[in-house]
From TrEMBL:
Domain Protein kinase: 89-417
InterPro entries noted in UniProt: Kinase-like_dom_sf, MAPK, Prot_kinase_dom
Protein name: Protein kinase domain-containing protein
Keywords recorded for this protein, A-Z: ATP-binding, Nucleotide-binding
GO MF annotations, alphabetized: ATP binding; protein kinase activity
């Protein structure tokens, strides 16, 4: 099936199947659309026929926005009914505070757990509704940041507000990249821990797949919005910050974020494939470019490069739409109104299918460089390196419709993690779902140690293993496996 039909059916199944309170509101939209929303029924019909994809960024839908906002805030009322108890959340410190949302770290005195509070003044509550979309749509919280609770009332900077509470995570991928890799916790040493990038990517894709299955596109996935938490030996990743998220097929006021922006984002109808691009950019960053792009050049160069690609795509899409419009204008259609509608539909369809700039200067050379640039971690990947490169290149396909879905990629990455990381232990998972320890594990460790240049040495305390560029003295192969190859455990 084409991505177009997938997106359409995903979102209609969301509207039909997701058992949540907000869905009741989303549901009603179809059944009781007031006449003012459809000022031009024939045009709507024509557009619906001619463009198989949702036109999230089409100006035509502007009139529908206020209605959608009303519905979201009604969903929010239902979800955030309980009154906020100021005394319950103590030791508050501001993490980030914009005009719209304030993010505070705090402790929940009732549960004694560290939490994060996201608050919006009453007039801006609709922005919180966006943040709450994963919770409202019952997206699994395993790898998506869903709210633990939401309250109404409470005063923020002197103004009445709504408050959503979240489990507090240890930090973001960006915070990790902003400081040199820490030796102390081998799992966080993204430069040498080959499983870091794979596990991060696998969990991100699982989170995205869950989000996309509900018809929700994040639109702002980047290293600052990927949260990490140590749970015993397990490193958990969650996709966070749904402030710019949109439902496929619904009207959408949010613009995509610029940090990991996909080439087509904002130029073609909203597609989950744009999140897959952003995930690919993070994989590229951590697996291949972390040192150079982040530490030396800073991430601005990286962001500018993506913005330029996005602009170039926009120009290509606009040119394709203009060509389709003028071709449509030559078709004899009796009434002016229908001719206009036909032209609009043709232009929208051409936009959706627009080819990206054919040989976008830096891009092809970037892909050519992949195997070389990805060398530091690719060497750990051994014979799996080509497969990782293929997946990376597929996620970064210039044409959005060629990118694989997050759910397909999640399965591929799960397989890589299983092969490469030997064992993945997730707290709370029963033994049945755990990946069993296989008899070949020791053999695999020995092979990888040889590939990584480990040698056996001796000192007063006995024998130890060491490798070039790493001052650690590993006392056993088990220690090497635990610290570098296993999931930290
Ligand atoms: N659950 C959480 N646990 C720990 N830290 C969090 C959590 N949620 C948010 N943060 C921190 O707060 C910052 C801002 O949160 P978020 O990205 O959701 O809001 P934002 O409106 O996008 O703000 P910003 O523009 O600063 O990214 C994050 O970058 C992260 O450092
Ligand atoms: Mg953010």
């Amino acid at each position: 099936a084409s991505k177009a039909s997938v997106s359409t059916s995903v979102s209609s199944s969301v509207l039909q199947a997701a058992p949540c309170r907000c869905n009741a509101f989303l549901h009603r939209r179809g059944s009781r659309q007031p006449r003012w929303m459809v000022p031009w029924p024939p045009l709507l019909l024509l557009l619906a026929r001619a463009t198989p994809l949702p036109t999230a960024h089409n100006a035509f839908w502007g009139s529908v926005l206020s209605r959608a906002r009303f519905e979201q805030s009604a969903a929010l009322d239902a979800f955030c009914g309980e009154a906020f108890d100021e005394a319950r959340f103590v030791d508050r410190t501001r993490l980030s505070g914009g005009v719209v949302l304030a993010v505070d770290a705090a402790t929940d005195a009732q549960t004694r757990r560290p939490v994060v509070l996201k608050r919006a003044p009453e007039g801006m509550a609709i922005h919180l509704a966006n943040e709450l979309l994963p919770s409202l749509l019952n997206v699994s919280g395993a790898h998506v940041m869903t709210a633990a609770a939401c309250f109404r009332g409470g005063v923020l900077d002197g103004v009445s507000s709504r408050v959503a509470t979240y489990e507090r995570m240890d930090g973001t991928l960006k915070q990790l990249l902003d400081r040199p890799p820490r030796e102390a916790d081998a799992r966080l040493n993204y430069e040498t821990h080959a499983c870091f990038a794979l596990q991060m990517m696998h969990q991100t894709l699982v989170g995205l797949a869950a989000t996309h299955a509900r018809g929700l596109v994040n639109q702002d996935l980047h290293a600052g919005n990927l949260l990490m938490r140590r749970e015993g030996n397990y490193l958990r990743w969650r996709v966070a910050d749904f402030g710019r998220a949109c439902l496929v097929n619904a009207s959408c006021a949010q613009r995509p974020g610029t940090q990991g922006i996909a080439p087509e984002a904002g130029h073609v109808p909203l597609t989950p494939a744009s999140d897959v691009w952003s995930a690919g950019v993070m994989f590229l960053l951590v697996r291949c470019f972390a040192f150079e792009m982040w530490h030396r050049n800073g991430h601005r160069a990286h962001r500018d490069w993506m913005s330029r690609l996005n602009r170039a795509y926009g120009e290509a899409a606009a040119a394709a739409a203009a060509r389709a419009r003028s071709a449509a204008a030559r078709v004899p259609i009796p009434t002016e109104r229908e001719r206009q509608a036909f032209e609009n539909a043709a232009a929208a369809a051409a936009r959706a299918r627009a080819a990206p700039p054919a040989a976008w200067d830096n891009f092809t050379s970037l892909l050519d460089m992949l195997p070389k640039r990805c060398a530091p971690l690719a060497q750990h990947a051994g014979h799996e390196a080509p497969r990782e490169n293929v997946l990376l290149a597929a996620m970064l396909a210039l044409r959005w419709e060629k990118r694989p879905s997050a759910s397909w990629l999640a399965v591929e990455f799960a397989d890589l993690v299983r092969r490469r990381c030997l064992r993945a232990r997730e707290p709370g998972k029963s033994n049945v779902t755990q990946i069993p320890r296989r008899p070949g594990d020791l053999e695999a460790v020995v092979k990888r140690m040889a590939a990584d240049g480990f040698v056996k040495n001796r000192d007063a305390r006995g024998s130890y293993y060491s490798r070039p560029g790493d001052a650690t003295m590993y006392r056993s192969r088990a220690e090497v496996a635990q610290r570098l190859y296993l999931d930290g455990g």
